[in-house]
Structures are given as structure tokens and as C-alpha cells.
Design brief:
Order of helices and strands of chain A: EEHEHEHEHEEEHEHEHHEHHEEEHHH
Oligomer: homodimer
CATH topology of chain A: UDP-N-acetylmuramoyl-L-alanine:D-glutamate ligase
Number of domains of chain A: 1
Distance between the termini of chain A: 29 Å
CATH architecture of chain A: 3-Layer(aba) Sandwich
CATH class of chain A: Alpha Beta
Number of strands of chain A: 14
Helix content of chain A: 25-40%
Largest interface: A-B, 29 and 28 residues
CATH superfamily of chain A: Ribokinase
Radius of gyration of chain A: 18 Å
């Protein structure tokens, strides 16, 4: 198959509901700051009723990354399930409007489109409570072989280890990519996801993955250690590309034992960290698909992340392509 | 009745769909920059399919004003019609979350919740295409007499002159307010609205209104002149409070022949002017309800407007009460 896409991704298709919150609110609601927890419809409704006035914006980790790739001028394709409802229409519109391919059939007459209630504290940190809804109904039939076979890189989110059907979709997609000689990238997504599915994730990393994205806590959770250097060494010893993000301390990118420290781009004020990891992955994967050296991949990831944390919402508000050009990247 | 509310308002209950756009896009779509035009469902779908990736945020002119009053620490109540759909739930949540009273029954099984597609050009100017949907079904039965009789000021938006049933609701509300000795405030809303309903609006201003909000083009449209000073003189000669906004040139507030020029608050960068007039009205009405002098009312209006144009979306993102306190207002 020819290279029609730079990156094809599979993920939970989610609309974000983003509101300001105090640290006291998180505490009163029993929410672990910075984490993602899954909620059922009753918990979702209850939390929503106490949240502040919000804005809605299309989200979903891998979907945000594909939006970022498109904003960088890359060719992105996305697979993920929404319902045939207003928020599902919003999600589909936003994917296509940014220039990504999105063709997954919506779920008819079932669960509502997934929503993630994101409480943003004054320090910009985001804490997420996600109702997975229709996104859990993504199954192997939603995996389009033509998309995967024609994309340089298949990008998968660790969040997909939670819904059962999605894991089957995941396995099918990985098999197709492997069979077509495509690269497979994985983000660990969240430390609690790693704890819930450590064995399966490790097995997947060992046997299938070419490129791993993680932040410090996810990486430490994967290798059951609190020692970051030890966890990093464990990852880097494997024959893969590793990109480990460290918030304001930048990132470490590594391959075949050689690692590079990449600085974060300075940001005037961190408004909302939602989407930081997703946009880092977008910049990294876009540069990687173009055959750029790893430190440049990390640098473009940092730039995309810097843009997204300077405003509310998980996707770029400016053309990342123009932004990158203005920075000589 | 005791004063339970500072301001009770009636308006078109709308969710905004806000996206960046170029001037060329406005031109290609035949949209008049800065204006509000009404679209039918087919036009709405067609425009939406070409708009950029968007964020959704509760809007509606008078609803934004009530949200602003609540953010200032005032007691606000709102009447407006949404559908029993996801965007309707978003609208209701956001009104209550900011501390306003909102009790209008949603429309069941009919038109969808109103949406305004707002294209924001790089200069921050917003151009709106509104599908009125369920909001047109607001009728006299939705006007709660207890709310109007217990609010110091009834606030009405000129936009309500478009839907037929809403005008009957409007008349009922104004009658109730008048009978209870309450003040009636009106915003002219939009120059095209004024042109469509000039005679009815003038008649209403002459016979019922105590406080008029307008911008320059609306005022000139009302008095069929291109001479701002002449239009202003015509308004100020009437026995009412006038507050006329002039974008970056501030506003003019006047009563009984005496007028005051109020400067705009400086804004670092105008991001999105959506809600500027609505938040000006919020600050003005909140101060007026507290019996503050007119120039202070204008000053608080300017401050609230300055906050809202510095970010995407039509409602305050910070506590206007805290902001006002920090400015000694």
C-alpha cells in the first residue's frame, strides 16, 4: 500500500467538558489530582451537577494527537466510536474540520458519546473523570485495514486497555500494522491504566511496539519502581524508540541506548495542561514520519505541547505548521 | 414582592459554537462581518460543515448578561427555552453552575436547542449565524410572574423581536414589571434586528423602557441616521437611562440630559469580542441595582467587557466580583 497517511490512530472518542475548579473541590469530590478516573453515568451526572460552568471541546487522547498531526500539516486518520447524538456530531465535525480523516460509523440508539469532565485547577493541572459511553463499543469491525496498511505509523492509546471490545480492535490493528511492515506507537496514557493492565501492557511493549510515549509516573508504574532513572533505563534497554515527558523539565528521547534530553518550550502562563502529552506525541510522530532525527522529534513535540497548555482545551488553537515554521522547525 | 433578584432576564437560550475564521472565509460565505444573521437548519448544517474545529460554550445574549451578574455576586434569574437534548442540558447546567436561577421547562420532542455559529476573525471580531431552534418556542406561559415581580430590573433583548411567540412573552413580562413598579431595561441587540423591527422597538422604547443599551450602529439604525451625535441626542432627550457602547472608545452613559464618557478598560490582546456588549450590560445593571452612580455603572460594565474579550467565549472565566474588587469597584 502507498503511504496515504503519516499516522493512523485508534482511541476512545471523547468530548471534553472543561471547567475551572479549586483544589478544595477536588478534595471534596475525592478526586486524585492529575489523574484520569472512569465514572458511570450516575457518577458523571452527580459530578457534573456540582462542576462550574464549562466549555465543551472535542478531545480523546489519540484524537487530539491526530488533530495535532493535521495542524502540523501531516496526514492523519482516526478510528474511534461516538454515538449518533449532538456531541458525537461535534466530535466528527472537529476531526474533519482540522483536516483529519475520520470515518468510524456512529453507534445508533445505544450509549451516549463519551464525555470527560475535566476540572482545571489554578495551577493549570487537569483532573479527569471520564464516562466512556459509546466509545466502549469500538470493536474489531471498526478497524479499517486500508487505513492501517497505508499509514506510516499506527498510534494506539493505553486507555484502550480498559474497554474489552477495544482491546480486540487494538490487537487486530497491531496485527495488520505488523503484517504491513508499519511502525506501531503506544502511549501508556495514565499511571492508573498502567497499574490496571501492567502485565498486558508490558507484554504488548515487548512484542509489538516500536515507539513508546510515557510520562514519569506512567513509566515508574510500568516497571514498579519509584526510581525514575531505573525505570528509564529499563525502557531504554529495549529495542524501541522511547519518548518520556517530564512536564516543565522537558523530555527524554532515546533509541538503541543513546538518549537525548530535550528542553520544554517556555510558556508565559500554564492555563490548562489538558492535551499536553497528546500534542507532544503529535509533534514527535509528525517529525518521525518525516524521518527527522530524534532530538528534532522531541523539540517539535515540546513546541506543540507548549501551545496547547497556554489555553483551555486539548487541541491547537493556531496552525502548528505555521508555529513550527516560525521557530525554524 | 421582596427583592429576591437584582436582574431577571428573558432571551433566546443559545449554545455558541465558536471557531477561528479568516476574513476570506466570511467573504466566501457571504457573511456580514460583526453582524448576527438567522439561518435555517439546512443553512446551519451547510455552514457548520465548512467551519473550522470549534469549541461549544453556553451563550445567548441576555443569558450571558445574567451569568455576568451572577459572577459579580448579584442575584440573577433567566427565562429562555432549550430543548431536552445534550446542548440543552449544557445550557441549563452552565446557568445554574454560575449561580443564576434558571427554571424554564425544556421543549420536548421538537426543535433542537438553538445554536449560534460564531466565526472569530484574527482581529477578535465575531460574526454570528444563529439557528434559533427551540428558543423560538418560548411563549407567555414560560414567563414566571414571581420572578419578574421580585427582580429590581427586568432585562430584555431586542433579539426577541424576531420570534413571534417570544414577542408575546416579552409583552407579558413588560406588563408585569410595569405593574410591579420594576425597571425595564432593553438592549437593541443588533443593527439588523433594529432595521427589521424599528417601529415596534421605538414604540417599546417610548412607552415602556427605563434603561436602553445600544452600540453605535444599533443606535444609528434606530434613528435612521449615520450621524452618531444626532442619534445619541435623540436617545438622550428621552426620559430614560442610556448606555451606548463604542468598542475601544468606551461608552457614553446618560440620563436627564447629562451624559458621561466612560473609557474602555485596556486589554492586552482582543481575542474574541463575543459577549462584550452582554458583559457590559451585566456590569452596568449590577451596579445600577446597587444604586451606584451612572459613571460607576459604566465603569463596571467596561471592566466586565474587558475580561470577556480577552478570551474565547461569551461568559466570564474568572470571578468578576474578585476582579472588580481588585480594581476598587
Amino acid at each position: 500500500m502507498p503511504d496515504l497517511y503519516d499516522v493512523a490512530a485508534i482511541g476512545n472518542a471523547i468530548v471534553d467538558v472543561i471547567a475551572p475548579a479549586s483544589d478544595a473541590f477536588l478534595q471534596a469530590e475525592g478526586l486524585e489530582k492529575g489523574a484520569m478516573m472512569l465514572v458511570d453515568p450516575a457518577q458523571a451526572e452527580s459530578l457534573y451537577s456540582r462542576m462550574a460552568g464549562a466549555v465543551e471541546a472535542s478531545g480523546g487522547s489519540a484524537a487530539n494527537t491526530i488533530a495535532g498531526v493535521a495542524s502540523l500539516g501531516g496526514r492523519g486518520a482516526y478510528m474511534g466510536k461516538v454515538a449518533d447524538d449532538q456531541l458525537g456530531q461535534v466530535f466528527a465535525h472537529d476531526m474533519r474540520a482540522i483536516g483529519a480523516f475520520y470515518g468510524t460509523a456512529p453507534l445508533l440508539g445505544g450509549l451516549a458519546t463519551a464525555r470527560s469532565m475535566i476540572n482545571v485547577t489554578p495551577d493549570g493541572e487537569r483532573t479527569m473523570c471520564t464516562f466512556l459511553g459509546a466509545s466502549t463499543q469500538l470493536g474489531p469491525d471498526d478497524v479499517d485495514p486500508a487505513l492501517i496498511e497505508s499509514a506510516k505509523i499506527l498510534y494506539l492509546e493505553g486507555y484502550l486497555f480498559d474497554p474489552h471490545e477495544a482491546r480486540r480492535a487494538f490487537a487486530k490493528a497491531a496485527g495488520l500494522a505488523r503484517a504491513s511492515g508499519r511502525k506501531i506507537a503506544l502511549t501508556l496514557s495514565d499511571a492508573f491504566v498502567v497499574e490496571r493492565h501492567r502485565t498486558a501492557l508490558l507484554e504488548f511493549v515487548e512484542t509489538q511496539v516500536d515507539i513508546v510515549f510515557a510520562n514519569e509516573s506512567e513509566l515508574c508504574a510500568l516497571f514498579e519502581t519509584s526510581d525514575f532513572d531505573q525505570a528509564l533505563a529499563a525502557l531504554v534497554s529495549r529495542p524501541l524508540v522511547a519518548a518520556v515527558t517530564r512536564s516543565e523539565r522537558g523530555s527524554v528521547v532515546a533509541q538503541a541506548g543513546a538518549s537525548h534530553v530535550v528542553d520544554a518550550f517556555p510558556v508565559e502562563k500554564v492555563v490548562d495542561t489538558t492535551g499536553a502529552g497528546d500534542q507532544y506525541a503529535a509533534g514527535f510522530l509528525h517529525a518521525l514520519a518525516q524521518g527527522r532525527p530524534l532530538p528534532v522529534c522531541g523539540r517539535l513535540g515540546s513546541l506543540a505541547a507548549a501551545e496547547v497548555i497556554s489555553h483551555y482545551g486539548p487541541r491547537p488553537q493556531v496552525s502548528l505548521k505555521d508555529l513550527a515554521a516560525s521557530k525554524g522547525l
